[in-house]
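To close the section, here is one more complete example, presented without commentary so you can practise reading it yourself. The ligand is magnesium ion.
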Amino acid sequence: MSGALAQFGQYVTDHHHWDGPRGIPHRTVEHLRLSVTAMVAAAAVALPLGAWLGHVRRGGVVVQWLVNIGRAVPSLAILAILFPLSLRYGFGLGFWPTVPALVVLAIPPMFANAYAGVRGVDPATVEAARGMGLRPAQVLSRVEVPTALPLILTGVRVATLQVIATATLSAYVGFNGLGSFINEGFRQQDDAKLLTGAVAVATVALTVDALFVLLVRRATPWRMASARPSRKGTT
Amino acid sequence: MVPALRLVAVSKRFPGARTDAVADLSLDMPEGTVTALVGPSGCGKTTTLRMINRLVEPTSGSIDLFGTDIRQLDVHELRRRTGYVIQQAGLFPHRTVAANIATVPQLLGWDKQRVRERVDQLVGLVGLDPELLGRYPAELSGGQQQRVGVARALAADPPLLLMDEPYSAVDPIVRAHLQDELLDLQRRVRKTIVLVTHDIDEALKLADQIAVLNIGGVLEQFATPDELLRAPASPFVEQFLGRERALRRLALQPVGTGPIGPVPEVVEGLPTVTTGAPLREALDAIVAWGVEQVVVVGDDGSPVGGLDLLTITERIGNAPSRRDTA
Ligand SMILES: Nc1ncnc2c1ncn2[C@@H]1O[C@H](COP(=O)(O)OP(=O)(O)OP(=O)(O)O)[C@@H](O)[C@H]1O
Ligand SMILES: [Mg+2]
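Output:
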């Protein structure tokens, strides 16, 4: 093991591995580009739909059903199906066959949390908003979504981590992301390379996760409020 | 004069329900008065209130606001011109107190300066510490949240205020406090207020007229607090009002609002009550001191009359039913 670690140390300190299209920075950027594309597409579908279903307070069973199906579908299977199709219809290798697989992966947690978050908003809050003359779209955008934001962002966060980890599969269909270190390392029986890929993916995931924590804190300052009961008055 | 709010034969049956939630309800509420809707749980109080701001549409009948059928108004306009206060306050957790209060003025497109001035004004009106303006609802006590709820409802100065059990979630001491504040506020801003409560004492204290509803949304009696206590229209109302109705009527009537006797010849050693005190205080003094009468004094403390037991009794008239006051 210590041998592998030493090799790993050598690998990552070799400046050749930091340059060019096969270097760590380039592959990291590519990995992020793929992940972000999939996340944006998935969020564009999952968040409005989940929030809207939560707003009309309908479809609980259907939501659960869709989410379960989405979770049960293996990303690798989608990839295997899409790869030849992508080639045949001219979308090429790598990037495009992977995006739908990641989108299917990312939708369930975001959809489920957007739905649960909006549906779970205190009915008294919604009643007050309606009673004050907010239109349905205003109730959703100004009251329900902001109030549900902690849960919604948690869904995005979970989906992002899954996408970053699973985007490594793209290497099997020829995408030049961080998964390529793992794929090549495995085939070339190069443990240092394999470890480099794994550590790089973990580092990206942890960094993005930390950024999320900061984002959530900044976006929902009022959440801190409930953690400060000492400021409560008495009357 | 056209009443501020008029309900004409309003009924509501929810889809799938076998009975009416509200049945054939007609009420006139004059401008600037407080009307209480009281009755047991499930008698349709909330439903009645929500029909007034059209969160619920009546099955039949009509509701007029200052002479206009509310169905002719834009529903969002109607709601923005109608304050709505609910039991759990329903504050927006993600907005500060100031932003919560500013909700309707912002919807109406007021400029920032005007909104800010209005918020400051309202904070004073409802007795809220201005320091709380920057806080979030989770940082407030129940009583403070209720005050913010009232301020938010009053923000755009609506002529009509609907309140659904506004004080039932706070403890009795805070509740009494908030009730006094509402009376004080009402003296200053004169809104037409519809107050839902199942606390009959709250209704007696705050309302100019009280509608007692029975299960199925049937109106049992619509009368002033004094009238209600003096002459309950049915056994249901009588039971709902509870015991000691005569004493509670005395509590409602200030000494100075009816006939009093002449100043006693000897005032030395007699207890005094002010003209603003309720008759019940005069009775209490008579009983406590074991005297024949009390001296009524004006605001400056000078004697203006006297009150004995007979006068007090005459003031509240002869109750038609003496069964539970005997
Ligand atoms: N949205 C609704 N759909 C169906 N039935 C309803 C609805 N709202 C109220 N009801 C029914 O109408 C009746 C009256 O309810 P309402 O809430 O007006 O009573 P309430 O007098 O306010 O009672 P409480 O004192 O418990 O608040 C009840 O039987 C209730 O179940
Ligand atoms: Mg109710």
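Once you have examined the tokens, check your reading against these statements. Chain A has one domain: 23-220. Chain A has ten helices and no strands.
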